[in-house]
Specification:
alpha/beta; eight-stranded mixed sheet; seven-stranded mixed sheet
Amino acid sequence: MTKKKILWLVQSNQFTPIMYEFFCLLQTRMEKLIDLQFIVPETSADILKKIAKLNPETCKIATRSATKSYQGFQAKRDILGDAAFTHGLAVSDVLLIDDLGGGNIIQTTLDMKLPEKTHGIVLQIPTPLGSSEAEERVYQAAVMWARHNRIPAIGYELLPLDTKWSLAPSLPDGVITRTLESFLHLKEVLGHRNLWLLPHYEASILSSVSTSFNINGAKAAYHFRSHYQIPESRTVLYIPHNVAMIYEYQKLLRIIAPMGDQLHLMFSFGEDQVRGAHTQKEMIDIIYKNELAQFASYSFHNMNVPWEMMMADSLAACSTCFQTTIAQEKNIASIVFDPIPEPMTHGFSQRANTEKQLQEAVKQVIQRHKFTLEFGSIFMELANTQMHHD
C-alpha cells in the first residue's frame, strides 16, 4: 500500500550539517507513517551530494521574463490597479523609483508532476534581509505550484517572522513557527488560520547556530517521550534537584502540585549525591512521595547529560545552578523560585519570590505548551485532514 507523501523543498542555503542530520532523523522517524520526500530544484543541484542520505529528487525550474523594462512596469501597473497607500500615493507610482531602470517581470515556475498521494509541500519562508532573489523566486513558484495542484503549501520559519515583512509568510496556506512571538504575530496581524509552534527541541534545530547539543536534545526528547509515554498535550518541567536543598524542592513541588495533573517532572540527579545509604533518586521517591502522587508522571535524568533538558518546556529551580546556566545559554525557559532576591526577568530566565509568582509562571508555561506541536504531528495532520488552501 502506497503511503501518504509530504514533500519538503530544500534550496542551497537552507540547511546546516545539524539541520541535515535532523532532516535524516525526521525522515527515518516518519518512515512507517509518512513518505517524507525531499525535493531540490535544479538551481540548487550543488547540494545533491551533500544531502544524499535523504534520497532527494530534483525538479526543473522554468523562467520567463519580459524583454523591456517598460513592458514590465506596465504589466505591474495594470495588476496593481488603483491600489494606494494611506495618504493617496499610488502603489504603482512607487515602481517608478527603480522599475524603469531594470524592473523586468520574471515568472518562475516549477516543472514537476504531482506525485501520487501527496498531501502537502513544506518549504522555508524567505525574508528580505536573509534570502537571495533566486531563492525567493523558487519559493513563490513552489507556493503557486501547490495552489495549482490543490495541495497545501506550508512555510516554516528560519529568521524571525514577527517583523514588518508580511508578504512572504502570507503566501503559504500554513506556517510553522519557531517562536511564540512569531506565532502570535502571524495569528493576530495576518490572521493565518493554520499555524503551529514547534517545541523548543525541534525549533532550536532550525537555526544557523544549532550544535550537536541541539540535535542530541531532539533525539533525547523523542526517546523519553516515547519511553515514558508522555502525551504531547502534557507540559514538561525539568527540576535541577540537589540533595542540599531537599526541603526547598519539596516546597516548590507543593506549590505547583495543583497543576500537577498537567505536568511531567524531569528530575536531574548526580551519582555522587547520596545521604547515608540512600541515593538521590531514592530520597526523591521517599521524601516527596505525597507530592509526586499529585503529578501526572516523572522521570530521572543524569545531570551529566544536560542536553536531555531540551525536552522540557521550562526548568523550575530553587537556585541558580549548573543547569540554569546551560538553560540560559541554550534559550531554554527557566523559573528560579527564591523568596529572598527581588523578582526579575533576564532573557529566558525568570526569578519568582512568592508562591503566587511561581504558580503564575508555571501556568504561563502550560499555556504556551498548548500551542506547540511536533513536526511529526503536523505531518500527520496534513495527511489526514482536508486543509483549506486559497
